[in-house]
Known about the structure:
two-stranded antiparallel ribbon; mainly alpha; 351 residues; 2 domains; MetI-like fold; 2 strands
Amino acid sequence: xxxxxxxxxxxxxxxxxxxxxxxxxxxxxxxxxxxxxxxxxxxxxxxxxxxxxxxxxxxxxxxxxxxxxxxxxxxxxxxxxxxxxxxxxxxxxxxxxxxxxxxxxxxxxxxxxxxxxxxxxxxxxxxxxxxxxxxxxxxxxxxxxxxxxxxxxxxxxxxxxxxxxxxxxxxxxxxxxxxxxxxxxxxxxxxxxxxxxxxxxxxxxxxxxxxxxxxxxxxxxxxxxxxxxxxxxxxxxxxxxxxxxxxxxxxxxxxxxxxxxxxxxxxxxxxxxxxxxxxxxxxxxxxxxxxxxxxxxxxxxxxxxxxxxxxxxxxxxxxxxxxxxxxxxxxxxxxxxxxxxxxxxxxxxxx
Length: 351
């Protein structure tokens, strides 16, 4: 970008004044914008290059507004959301410190009656076994916390990987129009295969394990997120502020990160919060059909499947009640927390 230097402006005025184009008396009051001069007739020596910082191209003013500070303020106003967040943090913390607490039993150990040397089979909750035992004498209290730890690990890993891949692909898919055809065909290939059938086939081939379930869920979990992000990007892509950014020469990656993705924070947070209990539910379903984790690895899916077998026996229904209570509490907490944070992240709710 070129601009007149101060010294050469005076030379330009003097030069045009000497040719009768500007009177010397009015030379000090002349406004260069009012000078009807053909730019091509002005020599290059009368110009100097002006510094242009591309990072400052869109800066038009300053404000005390902070998006994340406003989001946090709105979120903290909701007592329900704060309560759910505290509850989830306590559950996550307790799942990791529970094995190190005193008088905790191993989740895989089979406990015997010291007097008869017989397994504690289907013992109802009491002072020794807080949640009772299963049919082979294993402590349900330890198994539920160990299973919660396993299921949360699966849910968090699969949700994180699926959403990161889905957001990246969805942003490219929606913004870079030259990639639209290729990514649309890839989406159609994966979307036309039933997720349940694909997961069952992959787990059957790869053998059930924690890494296998995470990989299988990640291979199909990105599909819905990428299509959702792509549709939202298309809505915001050609709005005036993005057109202005492209005209100013702003790189595409900066437009996506600075202009587009902040508009989708509320949606991304909500989808992430829902993906975690959805992954836990998928693990429970895979265990129900016999393709879940091995029995020697405690998980909420295994515990619910074991409790389902004895749910018709009134005295043994505690074996399905406690695992279902854990799954329900985690699912409802993530759902309520995701909704609350999504509302707080919406700029329309900021003041």
